[in-house]
Amino acid sequence: MAHCVTPLTSSMASLGCACRFFPSATTRAEAYSLPLLSPPPSTPRSSLKCLKSSPSVSPLFLNQKFQRRTLVHAPNAGGVVRSPTCFASDPDQLKGAREDIKELLKTTFCHPILVRLGWHDAGTYDKNIEEWPKRGGANGSLRFEIELKHAANAGLVNALKLLQPIKEKYPNVTYADLFQLASATAIEEAGGPKILMKYGRVDVSGSEQCPPEGKLPDAGPPSPAAHLRDVFYRMGLNDKEIVALSGAHTLGRSRPERSGWGKPETKYTKDGPGAPGGQSWTVQWLKFDNSYFKDIKETRDEDLLVLPTDAVLFEDPSFKVYAEKYADDQDTFFKDYAEAHSKLSNLGAEFDPPEGFSIDGGPAKAAPEKFVAAKYSYGKRELSDSMKQKIRAEYEAIGGSPDKPLQSNYFLNIMIVIAVLAFLASLVVN
Q1: pLDDT tens-digit series, residues 159-199
Q2: Where is the Plant heme peroxidase family profile domain (predicted)?
């Protein structure tokens, strides 16, 4: 394949760099770009080659219809063919795909663009829309050409090309799961925290189910803080999660000729790895740590990129609380980042099984049932908050919990004891 360089705009302005393909799949290292902001309207977009005309892109990316996978066993002695319903993705194949992604990262250093791919598939979620897949989110829609052509997704066709052989090797893994698996694995392999993930995401079936353009944040809006809140609040994320996720800019670099942001080359990027050039947010732009926050807070190195949406993290009073904390405490940053990334990866997803499953130790557990005092009382009248708290306290005091009902009826037992005592008292009196 020829050296075709395409822009990687994204999350905070092309979170990243350019990605390049080589004559052989993994003969040279190349670093890619990161998540979630799109270039300004004036930024020229490189033409994306139509996937249908690209021999290196499988037709699966264009027209695969999601089908629930079933395992058809050979007829048993009675001649019956059993077809048990299975999860959306095969757990064993997901494990195999994860190992292949780790090998891909070792040879291509594509950590940033894989993070960006997962973020952009999930980042279209709108919490105000209940219907799936209209609500957007992590549903694999980013594999379709119509969504790939959104300005914020420029260059992500290269991420699909990188994952294509893995998808073909593990056909019983959905695109939605593959994108999020690749994103979390890239963070972990770059030295970041372990991200607790659940799988079983269902894919959308056609391009008509792709979200409209304009769902992802911009890098240089007129009011950066307000813009970030407009976009991330729509996803159901809060200020702490906005700042924590911004820390992923510790990975990747930006190229001005492709994203409209950054310098053509700096002392940190002139020697690659991969194609030299671009401007990174951090000195070690393939290492996941808290240096993004430290570099912004401390000396503003002119060779390091600071976008308007980066600078505002230390200017906005609410954002600054978390940015300061993460600059001083990497462990806290890692903890909060892992939780925010996990939450982001589930946004808008439809799971099969509904509770999802883990590939790190059995099925993911469903959320505990919310305590409802009325379930443990009689009558239709709504109880007061103080009465609900009193009931709950009594319930838990004798070994119960909102998640695990008592084996016996506590109140009935009390009534029986009272009746027995009354009967014995009457005998004594008589």
Answers
A1: 999 999 999 999 999 999 999 999 999 999 999 999 999 99
A2: 173-365
Q: What is the DSSP letter of 236?
A: T
Closest CA to 117 of 88, 152, 168: 152
CATH 1.10.520.10 domain range(s) in the chain: 91-209
The secondary structure element, H or E, covering residue 188 is helix 175-189
Task: Decide yes or no: CATH 1.10.420.10 for domain 224-340.
Answer: yes
**24 and 58 in contact (C-beta within 8 Å)?**
no
How many beta carbons lie within 10 A of that of residue 54, not counting itself?
14
Which amino acid is it at 306? V
Whole-number pLDDT of residue 316: 97
User: Which comes out higher in pLDDT, residue 252 or 246?
Assistant: 246
In 119-260, the DSSP E strands lie at: 253-254
3-state SS class at 348: coil
Q: Which of 266, 294, 290, 293 is nearest to 280 (CA)?
A: 266
Active site (catalytic) residues: 120
Boundaries of CATH 1.10.420.10 in the chain? 224-340
Architecture of the domain defined by 91-209: Orthogonal Bundle (1.10)
